[in-house]
Amino acid sequence: MSPAKYKALRYFAYTVEILACFVIQQTPGLLPELFLARPTIIIPVALSIAVFEQESASMSFGLLCGLLIDFGLGYALGFHALFLAVVCYAVSVMSGNLLKTNLLTAMLIAVICIPVLFLLQWVFYYVLFGYSHVSHALVYHYLPRMGYTLLFMPLFYYFNRAFALLIKPRED
Q1: Low-confidence stretches of the chain (pLDDT beneath 50)
Q2: For residue 83, is it within any domain?
């Protein structure tokens, strides 16, 4: 099989994974609630894909994941799409040029990016709208979601690592 066919097969597998994870995430009662919070599991999916793929593909998958979050969770169109596209592009550039690709660096990326995204959500959707009890929303809604979402990063790192390593052209 040619390298282009391997790449197309890998991208198809990533797309199926993203859509399946989105369905799992959106199905009520499928993932248990932890401290009354449900995870946003397609964020770790996008970040783990970005660790293994080239910049343009990473940005495209980040954009797809962000649009699914925007549509599925009822947020302003483009908020998550823009953030995840830029972050996935940056992660891909750093993974390709600066960082060693392993679980530790993937977790470090997730520990930085996921809290930044959720804190930006909190600022734009609670603080700037002038709601009362914004600290309550942060502590009892956003912080548990952050932690719960972070728990999925190792799972998706190893899952996408298998795609990246197993669906590639053989070197002779």
Answers
A1: 172
A2: yes
